[in-house]
Each structure stands twice: as C-alpha cells, then as structure tokens.
Amino acid sequence: xxxxxxxxxxxxxxxxxxxxxxxxxxxxxxxxxxxxxxxxxxxxxxxxxxxxxxxxxxxxxxxxxxxxxxxxxxxxxxxxxxxxxxxxxxxxxxxxxxxxxxxxxxxxxxxxxxxxxxxxxxxxxxxxxxxxxxxxxxxxxxxxxxxxxxxxxxxxxxxxxxxxxxxxxxxxxxxxxxxxxxxxxxxxxxxxxxxxxxxxxxxxxxxxxxxxxxxxxxxxx
Length: 221
Ligand SMILES: Nc1nc2c(ncn2[C@@H]2O[C@H](COP(=O)(O)OP(=O)(O)O)[C@@H](O)[C@H]2O)c(=O)[nH]1
Ligand SMILES: [Mg+2]
What we know:
The protein is built from nine helices and seven strands. It is an alpha/beta fold. It has one domain (about 10-20, about 30-220): Rossmann fold (3-Layer(aba) Sandwich). Magnesium ion binds next to α2. Magnesium ion (MG) binds near residues 46 and 47.
C-alpha cells in the first residue's frame, strides 16, 4: 500500500486568510481607516455597548458599522435606528465566523469614503471568530459579568487574540460573583499586553474612558 495522502486543509485555509487579512489591513491603513473588530459570546452586550460608544464617538469621527450574524438582521436595524450612522448587515448563511474575504466584501459594501472608523460586530461566539484574522486594526473582546471570570481559562484563543478587553455589565456584580482581578490576571497570563476597560452600558460607567482610548487610537492610526 502506498503512503496515504494527507492534506492539511485547515492550515492552508488559515494561511490564505492571513495573507488576505494583511492585505486588507494595509489597504485600510493607506486610506486612513481604523477597523475595530468586536468579539464576544452572544448576549454579552456588544450591540448595547456599541450604541453607547458610537453616539459619543460620532461627535469626533465618522463611523460606519458592519453587523455580522448567521442569518438575522435585527442588530443592524437597532444600531442604525439608535445611532443614525451608516450600517450594513453581513449574513454568513450559517457560518459561525467571519474571515478576511467576508470582511473585505463587507467593507466594500459599506464604503469607506468619509469614514474614519469601521466597527464590526462579529458573530457572537467565543470559539470560531478567534481563529480568523479579519484584517482588523484592533480586536476588542467583551466578557460580561454574568458569564463568569473563568472564561479566559475555557476559551484561551479568544483571550489571546484580543488587544483590549471590556468587562461589560459591571452593574451586575451585585448578583454575580465575578472577580475582576481574577479575570484580569487570567487574561494577562495569556496576553501580557492586554488592556482592560470595566463598563456598564446600562449605567454609563466607564464608557467615557473607553471612548477616549478609542479616539486616541483612531486619531493616531
Ligand atoms: N444589566 C446590564 N445589562 C446589559 C448591559 N449591556 C447589555 N445588557 C443586556 O444584555 C442583553 C444582551 O445585550 P446585547 O447588547 O444584545 O448583547 P450582544 O448579543 O452581545 O449584542 C440585553 O438584554 C441587554 O439589555 C449592561 O451594562 N448591564
Ligand atoms: Mg448583538
């Protein structure tokens, strides 16, 4: 019997994706567009936080939004209605991640004329989106208080991929035993350069600090 041929499909898919993502990052940098990829589990507060952020950011920079979901378009309607900024919906037809090709198509559909900051609300999932470089300038990962401070232990790749980490629903610490210091030290073990922003979108706590940080990044990009 001859030797069995084994083809490492996933590796080549990821290598191709990395190339495409680098190309997209370069194109956006040339155009002066900052691309923020927002990742977290479903229900952790992405849409709610983005509305709060965008309504403050839009006074200083021009924002465009890409909402990604497997099939739905409810978040795109919600964000557009609440912020008035240019928003499109990407549907992946059942795929649980976005790759650089899909984000390139999304950004082309959104259009980058007069846009300084493109925000992508990625598909709610702590596993698949972490595997694919979208071409983003920065990855912002959310962890909500009700999910628990152990999630960096269970989903290490996601917590390695993030550049900044937002602890959401901090108002809920009164009913959940979420330990902020434990969460931070677990993330720092995976990702020593991680930066943290505890917020409550419901109460408004911590939002201004995150807005100031994002503005400084967009303006210095
Ligand atoms: N208590 C509390 N609830 C929040 C906060 N942010 C979002 N939520 C709620 O969490 C649920 C999911 O929020 P959503 O923004 O849709 O999460 P997404 O699925 O990650 O986009 C909704 O019922 C929100 O009202 C917060 O800061 N505090
Ligand atoms: Mg959402």
